[in-house]
Specification:
With 132 residues, the chain is mostly helical. Among the domains are: 17-62; 70-112, no CATH class. 58% of the residues lie in helices and 5% in strands. It contains 3 helices and 2 strands. It has helices spanning 17-60, 65-79, 95-112, and strands spanning 82-85, 90-92. A two-stranded antiparallel sheet has the order 1-2. It is elongated and about 125 Å long. The N and C termini lie far apart (117 Å). The mean pLDDT is 84.
């Protein structure tokens, strides 16, 4: 009797070793690129953080005496009262008193149906008014 073979005359496909090596190399290169990108990003983040820390320590943490004096003068103006123009009756009151007064006045005007007053601020003593 004759024997019958199903795969007579055909060769089963064997995996190609060069193709397998190529895939492994491609995967390794891909992983290397991803690792490099992640490492570069982490190093860049650390560098930026350290640069900001150094900038803050060297530049931003130092106080400016002129700026501190200006802030002190402005706070004194905000917290004190004074007569700015006795002829026109313009007075400066402390900001802690001015805010509630302004709010009460604005609420009363709104309830009365009147528009809010918009006036030019008074010129501080020693400053000249500059009209554009």
């Amino acid at each position: 009797m004759s024997e019958h073979h199903e795969h007579h005359g055909t060769v089963l496909a064997q995996p190609d070793e060069t193709e397998t090596r190529s895939r492994v190399i491609a995967m390794m290169v891909g992983l290397l690129v991803i690792t490099f990108a992640v490492t570069a990003y982490i190093l860049w983040t650390v560098f930026v953080r350290e640069a900001d820390t150094i900038t803050h320590r060297v530049v931003l943490s130092k106080t400016n005496p002129e700026l501190e004096a200006l802030r002190a003068r402005e706070l004194e103006e905000l917290r004190s009262s004074a007569v700015l123009d006795p002829d026109r009756g313009i007075h400066r009151i402390p900001i802690d008193q001015a805010i509630p007064l302004f709010v009460r006045e604005a609420q009363a005007r709104r309830q009365a149906g009147l528009p809010q007053r918009i006036e030019e601020p008074a010129v501080a003593v020693g400053e000249e008014a500059q009209i554009p």
